[in-house]
Specification:
By secondary structure, the protein is mainly α. It has two domains: about 60 residues, Orthogonal Bundle (Arc Repressor Mutant, subunit A), CATH 1.10.10.60; about 140 residues. The protein is built from eleven helices and no strands.
Length: about 230
Amino acid sequence: MAERESQAEQAPARLHRLPPGRHGLPREFVVRNQRDRLAAGTIAAISEKGYRETTIGQIAAAAGVSRRTFYVYFRTKEECFLTTFDQVAAHLREACEEAAAAETDWPRRVAAKLAAGLAVFAANPMLARFTLVVPPRAGGQVATHYRVALERALAGLTEGMPAPPAVQPPSQAVQHSLVGGMVSLIVGKLEAGEGERVEELLPELVELFLSPFVGRAMAGRVATSR
């Protein structure tokens, strides 16, 4: 019995299938439901096993749909991953923009966006692994897509930044290294099994990112004011 429970805990999260046959649901609902299931199954299976190790059959099983249904929506595992990744990225951008909407000061907007992103990851560490841990290890188009997403994340953080001399932005190379450093800190938490505690990193991430732009003193004040 204990062995069965252990196996259940280690298995990818599964979703219940739609009722078979003529369930009377509008086609639009079925399509949306199956796409949502496939997205959730993709995140569950790949975040646990890794991109290369996960099969389409495992994604379909985690989603609670058939392999045939998988191929209705996606031609390949890569296409499925990239589509799901883009959905997650869009959700993160929306959460960050919403959190920053009330802030008029750029450094505090940065802090609000970082706080929102960490909150999403803390609520679902599996999502964080799917987004930050899996893609660089997958290589190929998946890793390239990930690097583009980091570029967009940097653009989102620097959006609305005041012109010099109010802010003295570092070089693009330094800015990219700052994003890489923040991701590395988050991944460290995830790999230590502390995904639910990533929000503890907020002061460190805020100070790390803002210091080259506004100086350590101001960055520290913003970091400790949240």
